[in-house]
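Reopening: SRPBCC domain-containing protein still failing for me.
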Amino acid sequence: MPVTDVITDAENLTMTVVADLAAPVERVWDAYSDPRQLERFWGPPGWPATFTHWDHTVGGKANYTMNGPRGEKASGTWEFLNIDGPNGFEVLDAFADEDGTPNPDLPSMRMTFTFTPTAEGTRMVNTSYFASAEALEQVVAMGAVEGTTLAMSQLDAVLQDLRDYAQGKGTRVELLDDTHVRITRLVEGPRDLVWRAHNEPELMKQWLLGPDGWVMTECTVATEVGQGYVTSWAPVGDTEGEPFGFEGEALLIDAPKRSVQTERMIGMPVETLNDLNLYEEDGATLITLYIEYPDKETRDMILATGMADGMETSYARLERELLAV
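Support: Ran it again with your exact input. Result attached.
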């Protein structure tokens, strides 16, 4: 995780984020000056940003909306005050509606970004200047420190070539906080086919099986928001185990990039929120699954079942059975 410090200074009315990045200044500048790359890390996990307007000139504006997993929206706007590529830039940042009109009831702030070369790559310093102590306190209370730290945790994947970042590393599980987990796996294959493999029953039954010796006995998918789904498995032959399944509801479908579903084991009351994101680069697709658990105990209990090992077996089968064809 690249963030090394977040400092709030009530006396000087500032919040400063310091991050050490394993990439040269020019590459970091590219990530911050290209809206398509910014979208991959500006919003925290589960709240990806979409930049709907981008005028990268002094006096120009950039508008963005972050989309939450349950359909929530939070929008903002930048006015570029200074641009000094690749060394940094300065903006006036404000909460806004989806059209970019600032919200006068919420604080705005001046933000500076500086990119300085280091022996390992680049040190990024982002300082936000507030008009009052109340404005600083309000933004901090809204989760700015935690949100910024989590958002920046996505930057490593943006700055590196996708294969350099994830190829050969299998299924990786990262604990983001007590209730949120990020699972990533790079697969060799186009995003459209990976999306179909997650959403078409005849394809799902070929790979989404976990350990060998299991078959999918039921597969009803949700094709529209609000619809329910059911997936069930059973052991075959001498395989030990009891049949089980999951059910839930589709909350968001943005093919072929993102889907969000609730998930419950059939017969159990515990519900998780599963946020699936697919990103393709040079013929490979990074699968990112954010899972929200009701509490830390549930998180630890489910992870201890060997879930990640079963997912790795399934992803390897996905590459072998479908993507290599």
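The CA atoms of residues 28 and 159 lie 7 Å apart. If you still see a failure, please send the error message rather than a screenshot.
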